Amino acid sequence: MSECKxxxxxxxxxxxxKIVELIxxxxxxxxxxxxxxxxxxxWGGAYENDSSEIVDALVRLKDRFPQLRSxxxxxxxxxxxxxxWINQSNLGPILTAYPELTSLTIKGSxxxxxxxxxxxxxxxxxxxxxxxxxxxxxxxxxxxxxSLKKLELYLGVEEYGFDGSLExxxxxxxxxxxxxxxxxxxxxxxxxxxxAIALADAPILEQLHTLxxxxxxxxDKGAEVLIQSERVKKLELLDLSYHxxxxxxxxxxxxxxxxxxxxxQQDSDDDEDYxxxxxxx
Length: 281
Hints:
Elements: E1 3-6, H1 10-14, H2 19-28, E2 37-40, H3 52-60, E3 70-73, H4 92-97, E4 103-107, E5 124-128, H5 134-142, E6 150-156, H6 166-169, E7 183-189, H7 192-199, E8 210-212, H8 220-227, H9 230-233, E9 237-239, H10 247-254, E10 260-261
Parallel strand pairs: 1-2, 2-3, 3-4, 4-5, 5-6, 6-7, 7-8, 8-9, 9-10
Helix pairs in contact: 2-3, 7-8
């Protein structure tokens, strides 16, 4: 058993099934010693119950999962629970309890924190949400993830939790912050143009093979600075999918010779108030 997913559907939840019991049942089996990837889906009423009991159980039972390398907490569909309704908690203790973990994916940002934000071997950190709080962004930028190769953050909108500005995001791209980083995703943002302009000539691009600015409100304003950047030209992949660029700008990208994803064009509108990131609620 290399991968295992645990979840509690609505009927099970109504009948009193608890996700912690499922974790304990798995931990009691001998094959749990071989689990490399654990996915926690809907834990039953995620819109009213946070993930703290899951964190407590995984920390308490850490010795039963010696091979665990990949963990996803909150893998649930829109029908199960809208992303803005998923109640998370402090997932920092997970990082401490599993020093061999290489991949952590979190879905939902309500109540989320990462304290302590420190891990020597984590290579991938992904947070999927409709709005990421500055406290979490700051925890990551001030934390220590020296082996991180992939950082993918859905920044979202103010209405669903993004309470910051470009100044809160910029510390993530400081030189030397993540020396092994090759994939950077600062995506699904209502300030995608500002992020694009700030990143276009950032030294961190020298170490990246992929820059992912997809799913946000990118328009010609941000794209113009990107397309003129010498550092952007060196990227193996630039992901700008789901955007508000004009047909003219898309034609310029197509003729640029760069490996750029410009799919999923949204109706361009001069009024920025009518541009929305892909994932919010």
